[in-house]
Amino acid sequence: MATTWDKHDSVQRDHASTRKLQEETLESHRHLLGEEHPDTLTAMAGLARTLYRQGDWVGARKLQEQVLATRRRLLGEEHPDTLRAASDLAVVLGEQGNLAGARKLQEHEVEENRRVQGEEHPQTLTAMSNLAATLYLQGDLTGARELQEKVLEESRRVQGEEHPHTLTAMNNLAASLKGLGDLTATRKLQEQVLETRRRLLGEEHPDTLTAMTSLAGTLCSQRDLAGARELQERALEACLRLLGEGHPSSLTAMSNLAATLYSQGDRSRARKLQEQVLEARLRLLGEEHAGSLWAKSNLALTLYSQGDRSRARKLEEQVLETRCRLLGEEHPDTLTAKKNLARMKPRTLRHWLQLMFKPK
Questions:
Q1: Side-chain half-sphere of 17: how many Cα atoms within 13 Å?
Q2: Is residue 292, in this structure, part of any structural domain at all?
Q3: Dist CA 179 CA 148 (whole Å)
Q4: Residue 51: inside a domain, yes or no?
Q5: How far apart are alpha carbons 61 and 91 in whole angstroms?
Q6: Which of 12, 20, 103, 144 could form a disulfide with 132 if both were Cys (CB 3.0 to 4.6 A apart)?
Q7: Is residue 337 part of a domain?
Q8: Model pTM?
């Protein structure tokens, strides 16, 4: 689903040094220009993006709320910079599980952009796509689909069938169709996106590899595991060769292939890939980043299936503790961790006796 920021667009940079430089710049602007100067607010927004990519959503949210409040007061609700600040804040609210808060901001952003910029303006279409992503996460797949169909229709008419924005809109619509269970329509859209990107960008362009990965996920859902594995192995080989083992795209490709291998019963190779992913994400992103936590959960599932239940529970306990602390008890990701851990609890003698003597 499209969002305002690409979470992984610069993960390979040294975020620590980037953050330090941005903090120094912000402090300098505050001292020389004042808290409400446009350059100070721009520096504040830039630092918030870095905090977001580091997984420090609390710090990012605090800065974004300050930027939004100041821009609303100085520029008004309709100014493009105000709308952009609201969009940035909505992304972090969504990550924190506050989907209602994110939706409220995004609905206002869509309304203002439609009124000021018009239905066909790229900024309006982006706002609609972001709102659709939140509706999707809230489980309103029908609402998400309706918005995405409008975005795709406008993109096709204004920008053409093969424009990158049109292809992104097709990919987003495919995600909602998949959630609604229409795998045939999903596959048709994804195959069209992949064919177009191959022809325009080449086999090894990052956008082509992303399209390949999306289609592979649908093939998995259709139980075409062999077809999915073939696409995923090609994507991983290209990512490793072009981007290196530690690049986010390479790690995502490893995770996807590991999931298919797991489904095919090749747990040993799945585990090997998942251990590589976890080691790299811990090194690049730290213990508390969402990517690291998902990597721990994925590895825990495989370990549990192989009988290494003590290590599996230990990993999932770490995930649950971190998510409770960072996201709260009721965040969807926290609830998922609770369910995962509950499945891994040792069975009691009474439980096994109930299974043994259960009526046939």
A1: 4
A2: yes
A3: 13
A4: no
A5: 9
A6: 144
A7: yes
A8: 0.76
Provide the residue range defining the domain that includes 305: 284-346
Let me know: does 180 contact 142? Beta carbons within 8 Å: yes
Residue 2 is inside which H or E element, if any? none
What CA–CA distance (Å, rounded) separates 69 from 94? 19
Contacts of 135 by beta carbon, 8 Å cutoff, 6+ apart: 103, 141, 143, 144, 147
Measured torsion, CA atoms of residues 287, 292, 298, 300, in degrees rounded to the nearest 10: -10
Total of domains in the chain: 1
pLDDT digit string (tens) for the chain, length 360 residues: 433 333 333 344 456 788 899 999 999 999 999 999 999 999 999 999 998 887 788 899 999 999 999 999 999 988 989 999 999 999 999 888 899 999 999 999 999 989 988 888 888 999 999 999 999 989 999 999 999 999 999 999 999 999 999 999 999 999 999 999 999 999 999 999 999 999 999 999 989 999 999 999 999 999 999 999 999 999 999 999 998 888 888 999 999 999 999 999 999 999 999 999 999 999 988 898 889 999 999 999 999 999 999 999 999 999 999 999 988 998 889 999 999 999 887 655 454 445 445 554
CA distance 218 to 224: 9
Name, in order, each residue with C-beta under 8 angstroms of 211's C-beta and a sequence gap of 6 or more.
Answer: 167, 171, 190, 193, 194, 197
